TrEMBL record:
PROSITE patterns: TBC_RABGAP. One of its GO terms (molecular function) is GTPase activator activity. It is found in: Cell junction. Keywords: Cell junction, Coiled coil, GTPase activation. Residues 388-408 are annotated as: Disordered. One of its GO terms (cellular component) is anchoring junction. This is TBC1 domain family member 2A isoform X1. It comes from the Eukaryota. Pfam families: RabGAP-TBC. Residues 399-408 have a biased composition (Acidic residues). It comes from Physeter macrocephalus (Sperm whale). The gene is LOC114486921. Coiled coil: none annotated. Its main location: other. Residues 105-297 form the Rab-GAP TBC domain.
Length: 408
């Protein structure tokens, strides 16, 4: 499905004009000279997104330039003071200061240490000496039923990331072991599509297999609600309804616009929440989201989901056709380049955001969804009973087995 040439050209003209205006104003104010953009970022993701639509290649280059420019311009004003504050911290402990620092994003050199601490806060009651090795040994002794699906998904994990595509890379083998260990750790889930991307992000940041394993355990077993990654994905379905309610409350104009054009956002947002934006945001923004998410929990995911729509609200409102909107929503998260702007929307513009409200919405929608599923099961059972009572259908012109055996 492609974008119409006229629509795409108009979008590109707007983006080019905005990018050039932004570059000119920022360059004159700060006299920053841009250095060449490398092909991959520090985590192995391509710096220029590979959009499926050919006409969007120029957009990708403009976006990469904008991200690079923001990074350079913000370095002295924002990044360096942040690095100094993180470097000055001694032993990490929960505090209001840590919360604010995590929201602003952890510098790359501090992120592995900080994530290990955040994960430990979540799983220290589950961790035991030698637990990871024990699970790996169990996998060697007996093949897990999920092994085949895990193997299939290894090749689908971040196909544009050099660490998962390079034949000489150790990352696919390490990811396989993390996922197999988790399937033994949590037999109720075993493996669910999406867990590969969560574990891969953890592995890219933490680098150590065991640390990545415990990060996956922390997300699935202590942060996300129960049944989020079950076969029914019940809690995931509930959260889609919760997100719809929050969008209607926080962005009523946008939701009215989408409702009139019969746009179902769950086609886009289901994957956002399931894998914590792993497929959606450029890496520097994605990891900033995870910095706060690992500390504060699922409320952060909703804040950022709302913020992404707010960030792009005016562009979506300009689109008048439902198909146009769906085409735009397929790639629009990759155009979010200003991490500071997105963070301010998420944690300032989206207030108030009480956890109590989130729990109440989840409870109400879960009750409704369970009732709907129960009704569907009843209808299915009644249908099967009716079919069984009627006996097997015999096509016209054919005889049943009994008739075929009747005496002449």
């Amino acid at each position: 499905m492609g974008v119409e040439a006229g629509e795409c050209s108009e979008l590109l003209r707007q983006l080019i004009q905005e990018a050039l205006q932004w570059e000119a104003s920022e360059a004159s104010a700060d006299s920053v000279v841009l250095s060449p953009i490398s092909e991959y970022d520090e985590y192995g993701f391509p710096t220029v997104p590979n959009y499926e639509v050919e006409d969007l290649r120029l957009l990708a280059k403009i976006q990469a330039l904008e991200v690079h420019s923001h990074h350079l311009l913000a370095h002295e004003a924002v990044e360096q003071p942040l690095r100094e504050r993180w470097a000055a911290l001694g032993e990490l402990a929960p505090s209001a200061e840590i919360k604010q620092l995590l929201r602003a994003g952890v510098p790359r050199e501090h992120r592995p240490r900080v994530w290990k601490w955040l994960v430990s806060l979540r799983v220290k009651h589950l961790q035991g000496p030698g637990r990871y090795q024990e699970l790996l040994s169990r996998g060697q002794a007996c093949k897990h039923p999920a092994a085949r699906q895990i193997e299939l998904d290894l090749n689908r994990t971040f196909p544009s990331n050099k660490h998962f595509t390079c034949p000489a890379s150790s990352f696919p083998d390490r990811l396989r072991r993390v996922l197999l260990a988790f399937s033994w750790q949590n037999p109720a889930i075993g493996y669910c599509q999406g867990l590969n991307r969560l574990a891969a992000i953890a592995l890219l940041v933490l680098d150590e297999e065991e640390s990545a394993f415990w990060c996956l355990v922390a997300i699935v077993e202590t942060i996300m609600p129960a049944d989020y990654y079950s076969k029914t994905l019940l809690a995931s379905q509930v959260d889609q309804r919760v997100l719809q309610d929050l969008l209607s409350e926080k962005l009523p104009k946008l939701m009215a616009h989408l409702g009139q054009r019969r746009v179902d956002l769950s086609f886009i947002t289901f994957n956002w929440l399931l894998v914590i934006f792993a497929d959606s945001l450029i890496s520097n923004i994605l990891l900033q989201v995870w910095d706060a998410f690992l500390y504060e929990g699922t409320k952060v995911v909703f804040r950022y989901a709302l913020a992404i729509f707010k960030y792009n609200e005016e562009e979506i409102l300009r689109l008048q056709d439902g198909l146009e909107i769906y085409q735009y929503l397929r790639f629009f998260t990759k155009t979010v380049c200003d991490s500071r702007k997105l963070m301010n929307i998420a944690f300032n513009d989206m207030n108030p955001f009480p956890m109590k409200q989130l729990r109440q919405l989840r409870m109400a929608h879960r009750e409704r969804l369970e009732a709907e599923l129960h009704e569907l099961e009843q209808l299915k059972a009644e249908y099967l009973e009716t079919r069984a009572a009627q006996g097997p259908a015999v096509p016209e012109g054919c005889t049943s087995e009994d008739e075929g055996e009747a005496e002449p």
